[in-house]
Amino acid sequence: MESPQGIIAAFILGLFSTVHCLGMCGGIIGALSLSLPEPVRQHRGRLLAFITTYNLGRIASYSVAGLIVGFIGAEAAAYTDMSDGPSVLRYTGAVMMVAIGLYLAGWFPQLSKVERIGKPLWKILEPIGRSLVPVDRLPKALLYGLIWGWLPCGMVYFVLIWALTSGSAAQGAMTMAAFGLGTLPSLLTAGIAASWLKRFTGSRLTRQLVGASVILMAVATVLMPMGHKGMHGHAAMHHSMPEGMDHGRHDGHSMN
After folding, report:
1. Which residues span the domain enclosing 243?
2. 16 and 106 belong to one structural domain
3. Burial of residue 94, with CB atoms counted within 10 A of its CB: 0-12 exposed, 13-18 middle, 19 or more buried
4. pLDDT tens across 212-238, in order?
5. Which of 29, 118, 234, 256 is the most buried (most CB within 10 A)?
6. Are 26 and 187 in contact (CB under 8 A)?
7. Are residues 46 and 18 in the same domain?
């Protein structure tokens, strides 16, 4: 996956995932807003500050998760034959986008079973989050958001698997951060237009259109021309290295 294309696609995917995010997290942000002290709820600026802080914590957790899986993916690639690396990563990412599209459209609901992966960790974190309620200060809102980001969510896990193919820890973190930022508008406005958004995102046609759009995005990423950087560039540098230097490098490795 090329870096700029991957980041943009992850952000757009976050925007498209509104139909899922409002169902999964809209109730959480609504409950958190209602649990705030009345002076905060009555002041739009302060209310927005709390809601934004919740979400910044959530996106930070997504980024940490992306950093971890991106690192794992890059390390795994380093120990395998990746002569066709960019193509493999690209097609794997496209397959994951198709899976996300099917999930969003409701055509493959069985994919939600992937949420079981995070339940053991959530059993540990969820009591910590409960201890922070009522969230009456911004630092507590940030901490709550950091915990909220680890809530078992099939959509997040699909994007994490996508981030696994990103090629590096930094790229994995940026992919997840971009996805999280894409979800931000819907969750920030959830409290303002909750009833309208619920009707809109609850429409079966809306879900199918969004899912089909994500699948088309996956096809587009495969059809887009690829650059010549990344692993191919590294291979070219290796072949252009003077013979003596190349032998010296191998000798150094054998000494270790």
Report:
1. 229-256
2. yes
3. buried
4. 776 776 677 666 655 444 444 444 434
5. 29
6. yes
7. yes
Please state, rounded to an integer, the average pLDDT across all residues of the chain.
75
Q: Are residues 256 and 191 in the same domain?
A: no
C-alpha distances in Å from residue 89, one per residue of 101, 182, 202: 18, 22, 34
Residue 113, classified by CB atoms within 10 Å of its CB into exposed (0-12), middle (13-18) or buried (19+), is exposed
Same-domain check for residues 70 and 178: yes
Same domain assignment for residues 190 and 248: no
Is the same domain home to 65 and 39?
A: yes
In whole angstroms, what is the distance from residue 49 CA to residue 110 CA?
37
89 contact partners, CB below 8 Å, separation of at least 6: 1, 77, 165, 166, 167
What's the pLDDT tens digit per position in 126-140?
999 889 888 889 999
Residues 172 and 147 in one domain: yes
Say how many C-beta atoms besides its own lie within 10 A of residue 49's C-beta.
14
Where is average pLDDT lowest: 39-43, 53-57, 120-124, 170-174? 39-43
For the chain, percent of residues with pLDDT exceeding 70: 65
% of the chain residues with pLDDT over 90 = 23
Domain count, the chain: 2
Residues 61 and 150 in one domain: yes
Mean pLDDT score, 8-21: 77
CB 213 within 8 A of CB 97: no
